[in-house]
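Q: Given only this backbone (87 positions), what sequence would you predict?
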């Protein structure tokens, strides 16, 4: 399920507040923060809601083994995805 919220007239929009409520419910219901699309910068703070400390540690180890922090083809620094450049 994709949650999109919009509060007419609100500036700025309450994205953080809505995310806190939605992902709190995800945690209570035993759901998953993300599935087929991976984790984006907005969901990253909530990944611990559906993954254990051991799973998070394994993810960090796999990323380090793949060299994601030094190989921009696999990951862009600070961003979960990047536009692919044509060669």
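A: Predicted residues:
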């Amino acid at each position: 399920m994709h949650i999109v919220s919009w509060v007419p007239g609100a500036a700025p929009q309450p994205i953080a507040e809505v995310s806190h409520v939605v992902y709190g419910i995800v945690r209570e219901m035993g759901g998953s923060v993300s599935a087929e699309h991976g984790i984006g910068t907005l969901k990253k703070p909530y990944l611990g809601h559906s993954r254990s400390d051991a799973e998070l540690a394994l993810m960090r180890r796999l990323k380090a083994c793949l060299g994601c922090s030094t190989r921009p083809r696999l990951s862009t620094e600070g961003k979960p995805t990047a536009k692919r450049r044509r060669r």
